[in-house]
Write a structure and sequence with these properties.
9-stranded mixed sheet; disordered N terminus; mainly beta; 6-stranded antiparallel sheet
Length: 921
């Protein structure tokens, strides 16, 4: 039996021989919001592993991985020609991903790729560009800090678990469990601060003895839930020994149902977190009503809460912090009660941030794992960068880069050899091409126990700073260049924004740069982008969002070939650095580079200039698989400016002068810095949430609809609004001022007609700029097609031919459509008749159809996946599909081929059409 090498070839071949270009080939209704989905227009069509399939009557773009793709926190996305096609559904086998062509968003399927957080899933490691160094060295060890938060405290601990009635959350068909494991100090008196842990998106169920967990919910008979919430017991025990009441909650019910949720389940996770906190508030008021595991713990102090979230759990606790200060729309929320707690800070471990919507007035610590194989673009950097200039800037937002840490090993239930269920190293070691930074056994890669210990240490550091208010710990988190010995041998580097940082040089559209370049974090034009695709690695600072071109995220690029080439940055107005101790700069250089030196100078408004000093910046250990273009914080004292009698209230420019022979560097920002951690009071910000409206297109006329936008809270602020063109996917942006009760006026025009087409999605996204927070960041108007699909008939137009002539069939529509309409047919036997074989048809046609010429010859009906696929163009009512035969010199009887039309579910539809080929005289 001949199996087609590439299933996609069937469609390409049929369209080619039918006189229809593959560049306009597509299947069942596709999204309206774009130009036609097409196949790659080259001799191979879609790449290996891809095909157009028919699933439950729906045409889908399908990719099958050669190996299982574990359920993770990063979204699996289909991209083509550098643009997002859509987010596919994962099948139960963990290898097959399908995207209904209705949901595709891009113009064509050229250069198809499968990405998860910027990481290629469809590309073998040995297919990369090979820029990785032969070996990587860990950064130099930093001096020890004055305190070590990783040391256990004086309390013994007690552990228990509770299970409550499940809760219903909006948009989730099945109820979600209310389960938590409690670890608390034994014998502690008085109220105790609370630390709540939320795990990320991982497989939910497993069958003991099986190596294939799944992400179903609820678990099937014979399967057990994976206890992901028990993976932070060591972290909980450390905090409990220091006097904290800790609880880690289970979220399998969300993980198993959030695959098609636009925000990735962030709002649902927030609702779950706040539902647990509400129960803890109830139990604090009425201890006798608490479960046994809670009664064994000291009384919880809900005025001092630390939230710890891993991966999508990180985004969930960030949203919980936001929702606790600025309530979400009731229709989206699964918790409707009062807020009876105070969140003092968050710890976000390898987090996602699909909405790019951090909470500016809640202190945060983001752990960025240098060998993260799941959220590999380290998009959690936005929790720091995205808060700049949004509010008062008093909350400390720290990012710590943990060299050699992967995504999973912070959770022991995701760690091989420790987990109850099957687990793996998410980085994905390739023995044929080991990674110089992240493969096990390298000088920079951490073991599971080393990583977990380092993670626990820095969680405890955040608790000690954000909750206990011990400012001595700040030097571990704010870029002061100190380490916690308990985390050894891990190399953990830190930088921060906020706290006692004052005026800053922020690269934005108002800044003028000479000698260097103001670059854009996200832009398809390599002349504009900060980091091009040939860089060999990625930058967490430039993690991609949704628009292909994003405004408001910039940096300053320095490139020099000789020392002394100064780069000057001039803000729109002079800045005040009066009373600051130092100027703190966040600068990065290419990975694995060492010894870059820069002189730092400032000039005041009168022209007086002072050289503040020289800084050295080294690159992080990196490879083409890591996001190692990450900024180190360096500081220079302002004493030289004071001695030179500069007006520190009016600093007009910042100057960086390279002192090394050649190199490249990027300046993220520079701040007036002073020690200390100020008290944080949340500002009266306006919250913005977008909604979606579904409407019928109608039969005639043009109707105008308004995108649902909710503005709540206090004060007024600014957001940047992106409106995506439904035909091209390109975005237009504008700054908008919002006030509570007065949303954003975004209108959409929907034109009605009586011809079949696809649904049209008019998408809008929004991001906070100043004085605002954003909850639901995406919305729009979906104009649903309300016209019936034309009836399709098939008839022969050349059903009896002499060999050497093409057989032809015509596909006709009962009425023209506004989109292409496809029909598939397959070869079937003609009982009692000699069949047309692969030797009787055109050789190139076979290659286009199958990717090969079968040897020996077989009847066409025995070709697997060999479909005839014809597309009737938009506005037309018919198209022909040929089967080209060849003339040979062999005398043979008449031959026949059967053509069976198929319905949308691949079932026979109508009679078999017979083609007859006569022997040439």
């Amino acid at each position: 039996m001949i199996r087609a090498r590439r299933v996609w070839a069937t469609a390409i071949a049929v369209l080619t021989v039918a006189g229809v270009s593959p560049a306009v080939a597509h299947a069942q209704p596709k999204p309206p919001d774009v130009r036609p989905v097409t196949a790659a227009n080259d001799e191979d069509g879609l790449p290996p592993g891809w095909r157009i399939s028919n699933t439950d009557g729906e045409q889908t773009l399908e990719w099958r991985s050669p190996r299982t793709v574990p359920a993770g926190d990063a979204r699996v996305e289909f991209h083509a020609d550098g643009k997002l096609v859509g987010v596919p559904d994962a099948e139960e086998d963990g290898r097959t991903f399908r995207l209904p062509l209705d949901d595709a968003r891009t113009a064509d399927l050229a250069d198809l790729q499968v990405l998860a957080a910027g990481r290629r899933l469809d590309q073998k490691a040995d297919a990369r560009d090979g820029r990785s160094p032969s070996a990587a060295k860990p950064p130099a060890e930093l001096p020890a800090g004055s305190v070590d938060p990783g040391k256990p405290g004086s309390y013994r601990t007690v552990t228990g678990e509770y299970a409550l009635d499940p809760v219903r959350l909006p948009g989730f068909p099945a109820p979600v469990e209310m389960r938590g494991v409690v670890v608390a100090p034994k014998g502690a008196t008085g109220k105790r601060p609370v630390a709540l842990f939320l795990h990320g998106r991982h497989a939910t169920c497993y069958v003991p003895g099986s190596e294939e967990p799944n992400i179903d919910w609820p678990c099937a008979k014979g399967a057990k839930p994976i206890p992901s919430h028990r993976g932070y017991l060591r972290d909980q025990e450390l905090l409990a020994s220091q006097g904290y009441v800790t609880v880690s909650i289970s979220a399998n019910g969300i993980n198993g149902q959030d695959g098609n949720v636009e925000d990735g389940g962030a709002q649902a996770r927030s609702s779950l977190v706040r539902s647990h906190l509400a129960r803890w508030a109830d139990w604090a008021a009425k201890p006798a009503a608490a479960p046994a595991a809670v009664r064994k713990a000291p009384k919880a102090d809900l005025s001092s809460v630390l939230l710890v979230g891993h991966s999508r759990g990180g985004e969930g606790v960030n949203r919980a912090a936001m929702d606790s200060l600025y309530p979400p729309p009731p229709a989206q929320d699964g918790y409707r009660g009062k807020v009876r707690w105070n969140i003092r800070g968050t710890v976000l471990i390898g987090p996602t941030i699909f909405g790019h919507n951090p909470v500016p007035d809640v202190p945060s610590l983001t752990i960025l794992p240098g060998c993260d194989g799941d959220v590999s673009d380290l998009q959690g950097q936005v929790y720091a960068d995205g808060t700049r200039g949004v509010s008062r800037g008093k909350a400390l937002h720290s990012a710590v880069y943990m060299v050699g840490a992967n995504h999973n090993y912070f959770n022991s239930e995701w760690t091989p050899g420790q987990a109850q269920a099957p687990a793996d190293d998410d980085f994905g070691h390739d023995p044929e091409r080991p990674d110089p930074v992240c493969s096990p056994g390298t000088a920079t890669r951490l073991t599971a126990d080393q990583q977990h210990r380092a993670g626990a240490t820095y969680i405890a550091a955040a608790a000690r700073l954000f909750v206990a208010g011990d400012d001595r710990v700040r030097e571990l988190l704010d870029g002061s260049g100190r380490r916690a010995p308990s985390a050894d041998p891990a190399r953990v580097l830190a930088h921060a924004v906020g706290a006692n940082r004052g005026a800053g040089f922020l690269p934005d559209d108002s800044v003028k740069v000479t000698g260097g370049r103001l670059c854009s974090a996200i832009d398809p034009d390599p002349r504009v982008a900060c980091l091009n695709t040939e860089a060999g690695g990625n930058s967490p600072h430039f993690a991609h969002w949704q628009p292909e071109r994003e405004r408001g995220r910039s940096a300053v690029t320095l490139r020099w070939t000789a020392p002394g080439s100064a780069v000057t940055v001039r803000p729109a107005k002079p800045l005040s650095v009066k009373d600051a101790k130092s100027l703190a700069l966040r600068v990065f250089v290419p990975p694995n580079s060492t010894g870059t030196q820069l002189d730092v100078s400032v000039t005041d408004a009168s022209g007086k200039r002072a050289n503040l000093g020289r800084v050295r910046v080294d690159g992080l250990p990196g490879s083409d698989r890591t996001a190692s273009y990450w900024a180190r914080e360096v500081r220079v004292p302002l004493t030289a400016a004071t001695r030179a009698d500069l007006d520190l209230r009016r600093i007009a420019s910042l100057e960086l002068t390279p002192r090394t022979r050649s190199g490249q560097a990027w300046l993220m920002d520079a701040w007036a810095w002073s020690p200390g951690t100020p008290a944080v009071q949340e500002a009266p910000l306006t919250r913005v949430d977008l909604g979606r409206l579904k409407v019928k297109e109608g039969d005639s006329g043009v109707r105008t609809y308004r995108v649902p936008v909710r503005a709540s809270g206090k004060g007024s602020g600014t957001v940047r609004l992106y409106v995506l063109d439904p035909a091209t996917g390109k975005a237009k942006d504008r700054l908008v001022t919002v006030r509570p009760g007065r949303g954003i006026d975004v209108t959409v025009q929907v034109k009605g007609n009586k011809r079949f087409a696809w649904d049209v999605s008019h998408d809008v996204i929004v991001k906070a700029v100043r004085g605002t927070v954003v909850g639901s960041h995406a919305g729009g108007v979906l104009a649903e097609n309300d016209d019936p699909k034309p009836k399709i008939t098939v008839k022969a137009v050349a059903g009896k031919v002499t060999e050497g002539q093409p057989l032809k069939w015509q596909v006709s529509l009962s009425a023209p459509a506004d989109v292409e309409v496809d029909k598939r047919m397959r070869f079937v036997p003609v009982p009692g008749r000699r069949e047309l074989s692969t030797a009787d048809v055109d050789r190139q046609w076979l290659i286009d159809l199958l990717g090969e010429v079968p040897d020996p010859e077989v009847p066409l009906s025995q070709l697997n996946y060999a479909y005839l696929w014809v597309s009737v163009p938009a506005g037309k009512t018919s198209a022909e599909v040929p089967v080209p035969t060849v003339r040979d010199k062999v005398a043979e009887p008449t031959e026949y081929v059967g053509i069976q039309p198929l319905d949308d579910e691949d079932k026979p539809q109508g009679p078999v059409l017979t083609g007859t080929v006569l022997d040439a005289p």
